[in-house]
């Protein structure tokens, strides 16, 4: 309390410190939020937001008459939900297996290697993936050894969502193990020793010590991932898709980009983007609320 | 730890090493393959004869890049962007993180600022309003659009806030006794203590600015202003062609210079590979320290 008394006069300096950051935030985050009025306008960039004609909900009505919108919503949710599930389970299994490894040098090396792809951009990784999955590429070469005839993977709409989910798991699973591994180190080692003395097998220890020990973390991560139901991964899909796979691979974000910035239908694209932002915001707020209530989680 | 000596348990250990080692290998093989293609003859690469070892080893792709002014131009833009972006982020994150780590008694309206900050992280106006805003600020084709475009890295600010909040109260009290003002306190006392978390968020900034391509694509209408990732994206990725058939796409990928593209991709990921050991050392401790709350 004495500390608070002495630093009370510091407030104006603190506000001064906050000033540049909040100016930046205002210009590039808050001002664009007002731009959502474009969704209710027949926006003409020449006239600007203030003078363009207001058309109410016309953009939204038109949006729902499009065949595209049903399929992009389906594709977005389908890919995003598969990613959420896979990105919860694969890192968990990998972390549990890594936890069983007793050679600590090897463990550290494996961790270092599997974290790496997370830090490479989707531009780089897409360049590599397009090459590896090409007609003459190594994947087809390996498959042909098993008698599978080569295929053009990135022209196959039926395979596209699964290649997207698979490559996303490949990029992120290592990094996603970090939180599980941190939770695993929090388990009291004497529990394992006691269990071993009692003759518990590895599987029994996993079931009665390890899993209960990290259950809070698993639940927390599951709840927080709720906010990603409409995030199918723009950067990845944008760099890997092509018109042949639009039927299964076109998502809200890629559609907004093409509609708004390539076809210049500003109002329509903003309407779709706004719908996505609002739904996502509600989902994230709900997930934070649940996480705070049941796992005592606070972001700050 | 008590070790079992049953046969089943030993077998499990062996299989575990094989499986985990194999998975780790799977994470680097694609990168290794790209290096191998970049060092091969182009004919062998497009015929798909290159595996994990170069066929017809040569450095001609790298020699060709050395004389490619467009590549170096983009490389230089990326370097400038990283330098400006990472320094600006560092200053802003520190200046936001420190005061916001104080409680509301010392900093009135602290929670209002926090909610605004978190709100901008969770909600955005979407692509078109954001693009129109930057356009009306006159930043199209300006490197500052790349530096400022994505606004404040709120997640990093929160990591720093939480780090400061977990420091012992005695630190500030001792400095107050010595008569330190708010700015001396921040620069001489708190900044040096926060090196681990500041290094973490700075490395995140560096990786973000190096890897980001989309702002380069939409905010730079002049290809001479493309940062390296946007330049590579334009080269490698199948450009939008509504009418293209599967055969045409295949033909295009055969015609493209695979070894040259592989070499460009490899050079573009080099900076990340170089800073990765440092990154590795910091990010785990940075993340876990910053996310633990009292």
UniProtKB/TrEMBL annotation, chain B:
> What is the annotated localization of this protein?
Cell membrane
Say yes or no: keyword Transmembrane helix present: yes
Q: Where are the transmembrane segments?
A: 12-33, 75-100, 112-131, 143-164, 185-210, 262-279
Q: Which GO terms describe its biological process?
A: transmembrane transport
Name the keywords, alphabetized. Answer: Cell membrane, Membrane, Transmembrane, Transmembrane helix, Transport
How is this protein annotated for GO cellular component? plasma membrane
Protein name, per record: ABC transporter permease
Tell me where in this chain the ABC transmembrane type-1 domain is found.
Answer: 75-279
Sequence similarity? Belongs to the binding-protein-dependent transport system permease family.
Could you tell me the membrane topology recorded for this protein?
Multi-pass membrane protein
Q: Which domain of life is it from?
A: Bacteria
Enumerate the Gene3D superfamilies for this protein: MetI-like
Show the Pfam families listed in the entry.
BPD_transp_1
């Amino acid at each position: 309390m004495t500390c608070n008394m002495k630093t009370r006069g510091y407030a104006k300096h603190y506000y001064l410190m906050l000033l540049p950051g909040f100016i930046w935030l205002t210009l590039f985050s808050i001002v664009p939020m007002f731009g959502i009025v474009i969704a209710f306008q027949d926006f003409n960039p020449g006239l600007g937001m203030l003078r363009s004609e207001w058309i109410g909900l016309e953009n939204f009505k038109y949006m729902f008459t499009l065949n595209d919108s049903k399929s992009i919503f389906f594709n977005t949710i389908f890919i995003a939900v598969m990613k959420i599930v896979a990105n919860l389970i694969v890192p968990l299994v990998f972390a549990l297996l890594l936890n069983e490894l007793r050679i600590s040098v090897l463990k550290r090396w494996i961790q270092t290697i599997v974290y790496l792809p997370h830090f490479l951009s989707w531009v780089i990784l897409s360049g590599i993936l397009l090459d590896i999955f090409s007609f003459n590429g190594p994947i087809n070469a390996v498959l042909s050894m098993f008698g599978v005839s080569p295929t053009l993977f990135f022209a196959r709409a039926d395979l596209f969502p699964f290649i997207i989910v698979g490559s996303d798991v490949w990029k992120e699973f290592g990094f996603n193990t970090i939180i599980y591994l941190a939770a695993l180190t929090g388990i009291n080692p004497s529990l394992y020793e006691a269990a071993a003395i009692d003759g518990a097998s590895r599987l029994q220890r996993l079931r009665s010590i390890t899993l209960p020990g990290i259950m809070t973390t698993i639940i927390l991560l599951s709840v927080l991932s709720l906010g990603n139901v409409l995030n199918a991964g723009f950067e990845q899909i944008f760099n890997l898709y092509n018109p042949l796979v639009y039927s299964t691979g076109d998502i809200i974000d890629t559609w907004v980009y093409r509609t708004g910035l390539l076809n210049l239908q500003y109002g329509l694209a903003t309407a779709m983007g706004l719908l996505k932002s609002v739904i996502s915001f509600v989902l994230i707020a709900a997930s934070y609320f649940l996480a705070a209530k049941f796992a005592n989680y606070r972001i700050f | 730890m008590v070790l079992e000596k049953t046969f089943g348990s030993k077998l499990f250990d062996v299989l575990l090493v094989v499986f985990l080692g194999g998975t780790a290998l799977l994470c680097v093989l694609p990168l290794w393959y790209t290096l191998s293609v970049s060092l091969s003859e182009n004919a062998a690469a497009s015929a798909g004869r290159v595996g994990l070892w170069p066929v017809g080893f040569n450095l001609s792709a790298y020699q060709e890049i050395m004389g490619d002014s467009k590549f170096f131009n983009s490389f230089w833009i990326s370097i400038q962007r990283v330098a400006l972006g990472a320094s600006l982020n560092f200053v802003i994150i520190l200046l936001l993180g420190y005061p916001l780590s104080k409680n509301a008694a010392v900093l009135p309206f602290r929670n209002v600022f926090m909610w605004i900050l978190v709100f901008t992280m969770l909600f955005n106006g979407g692509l078109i309003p954001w693009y129109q805003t930057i356009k009306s600020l006159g930043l199209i084709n300006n490197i500052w659009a790349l530096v400022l475009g994505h606004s404040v890295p709120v997640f990093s600010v929160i990591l720093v806030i939480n780090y400061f909040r977990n420091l012992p109260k005695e630190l500030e009290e001792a400095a107050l006794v010595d008569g330190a003002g708010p700015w001396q306190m921040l620069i001489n006392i708190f900044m040096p203590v926060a090196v681990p978390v500041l290094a973490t968020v700075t490395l995140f900034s560096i990786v973000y600015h190096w890897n980001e391509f989309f702002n380069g694509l939409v905010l730079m209408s002049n290809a001479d202003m493309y940062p390296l990732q946007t330049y590579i994206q334009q080269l490698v990725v199948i450009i939008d062609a509504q009418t293209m058939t599967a055969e045409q796409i295949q033909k295009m990928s055969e015609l493209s210079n695979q070894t040259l593209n592989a070499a460009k991709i490899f050079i573009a990921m080099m900076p990340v590979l170089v800073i990765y050991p440092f990154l590795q050392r910091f990010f785990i401790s940075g993340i876990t320290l910053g996310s633990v709350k009292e």
